[in-house]
């Protein structure tokens, strides 16, 4: 992606890569210490109680002696990219120019590596701000194939992490995501289709979808992120990628017959059967 130390002007690099100049020069809007504290608490509450909406989260925050209104909670949730996980009618308006694809995994038995990849993005708290972590996970084997920490939800970062996975692991039959704008953007859709993959998208707030990625977020946050106060995006990136290296090569899973994700991926696990 962008090399800020290169002689080629940043604007020229952005043009050659086909990404917006705005995302390259983007500086995050200042966030108050109070809002950062609330966002960290919201993140923990959402991991523990993913079914809670803005009203219930507001009530939980108020129990912690943090007086905040429901509208403010909704605003912060939107900025963090989180929502309650429950089945509900999809009444939201589509982003102009963004296509929503059907969910393809219902009833499917996912039993081998590179059958389905899942992509998702989660909020990462920093000492004085926040960032977003996007990862590609092999559904059947839990292996983290690629990950990226960035300061925005721009589609270019989702494309970048997906292309990293393509480069090192080939291509899956299906790429499954949620309906986030970074995944419905034309650039991301084209990146998936260019490899001959099918694109599957979760229903908004459907609890069953991308469940393995949600478990990964819980693991990385409680076992690494919440134990540190990262001073920069670079520091967070180094720490999180180090965690994923350990997770892939040393973390054993009972659902993988006590194998690590790396072992399971390499073996292909022809007998593994996971219902979507």
From TrEMBL:
Q: Which GO terms describe its molecular function?
A: nucleic acid binding
Listed GO biological process terms: DNA integration
Tell me one Pfam family matched here.
Answer: rve_2
InterPro entries, A to Z: HTH-like_dom (IPR025948), Integrase_cat-core (IPR001584), RNaseH-like_sf (IPR012337), RNaseH_sf (IPR036397), Transpos_IS3 (IPR048020), Transposase_IS3/IS150/IS904 (IPR050900)
| Record-annotated Integrase catalytic domain positions | 98-269
Q: Which Gene3D superfamilies match?
A: Ribonuclease H-like superfamily/Ribonuclease H
Check the record and name the NCBIfam families matching this protein: transpos_IS3
The name on file for this protein is Integrase
